[in-house]
Amino acid sequence: MFSWLGKEGAGRQKDSTDVVQTVTGGLKTLYMRKLLPLEEFYRFHDFHSPALEEADFENKPMVLLVGQYSTGKTTFIRYLLEQDFPGMRIGPEPTTDSFIAVMYGEKEGSIPGNALVVDPKKPFRKLNSFGNAFLNRFMCSQLPNQVLKSISIIDSPGILSGEKQRISRGYDFSQVLHWFAERVDRIILLFDAHKLDISDEFSEAIRAFRGQDDKIRVVLNKADQVDTQQLMRVYGALMWSLGKVINTPEVVRVYIGSFWSKPLQITENRKLFEMEAQDLFRDIQSLPRNAALRKLNDLIKRARLAKVHAYIISHLKKEMPSMFGKENKKKELISKLPEIYTQLQREHQISPGDFPEIKKMQERLEICDFSKFHNLKPKLIEAVDNMLANNIASLLTLIRQEESSMPTQMVHGGAFEGTMEGPFGQGYGEGYGEGAEDEEWVVAKDKPAYDELFYTLSPINGKISGANAKKEMVTSKLPNSVLGKIWKLSDYDMDGMLDEEEFALAKHLIKIKLEGYELPNELPPHLIPPSHRKVFHNAE
Asked: So what CATH class is 62-286?
């Protein structure tokens, strides 16, 4: 079934480690054998993205942090790791002036950019093309941290406004971000609740993430420094600003909170911040589990772009004259590129979204010699089509095997550890978890009020019928599907009636739902009515 993987991929489906190696090996083999020849033949790497290397397939999931200066990017990393890292500088002024790859290492230390791009085990070799101006502002910070065993984090320089900042960097900042965006698993844009303006350079940086919209998450940081009314206005202003620079019909996910280890300044939204932090942590923790799927998804996107690129280049070659007037024809073809796009869409039934940006393509074509382009080679296109139609499906099967045969991969350590278990875990002691450690039945404190209601519902032999219980339960205005679940949980002896304790339990569960908490799928031991607990223990 997986013969296309070659000998090294065959027979490796016995344990979880082998499955991971097979998936990684399969991706690498697919790229090297089927996609890379097409890319090289039509000079894809000169126009779009450098060739992928072994480290690109084997590296850990990466998270890229981007934001204007003093939005808390470096502090956010410090918060996740719960320790300092080499090269870390924090302050209200623009402090981080370099790209810092924070990665796992047995010994704490840093590796400068020029040394980093010649290390075949690191996925940064192709950054060499950005030159010394960039490499002098690039480093790897290594430290033995539990979080970094699962993910790597890329800290970026704080973005300022003004043309001067773009010029003084000495390298193409947006292109560097674009390079990272293609390879990372998550892009986190950080905003300060007091500085929502999106500068020209920040807008340009966000546009560099075009095509990677599914990776973008937004964090509204330092939200504890404003009250609830101000926070609503700040959130609305942020969404309006983002709508102008992120051109997608979907609303981008924004996490609100204060991501550092100091006390909250305004505590009225503490619960909201806790819930938002847990949602963000869950998103980051899912990255190792979804890493293989993300790499597969990126390979598919790359293959579709490479195919379109081949059609464009071969079309330009076909239209060029064999002898005279080459330069004039080249200018004409570049100016008519939008029309060529439309023509190729019709000829090959390609979606407009698969085509590269017209302006950037025109800029790159200006410096090319069209006579060195190649005509269409159907065998190369067929190989990629076969990969997309057949091999990808086989690889998806392998990924599903990986998910079923391995324990769930999660990010552990640092800030993730403190909120997973114990009394400070999300929802601990709240909702249906309230009273889990109390000796007294948690429903008992409200039971006198529930008993008064119970006796107005005409109990017979200490129980009320389902019809009478329904009359009271529907006053909550909860939908029947929810009330039906509450009934199943409350009718503990399943006799179709409720005694006073079961009725009190039903009212307690209704209260939990009305307060915005979820209901349990099974009744936890601490909520079982006291008079029914003997039955529960005997059943065990």
From this structure: alpha beta
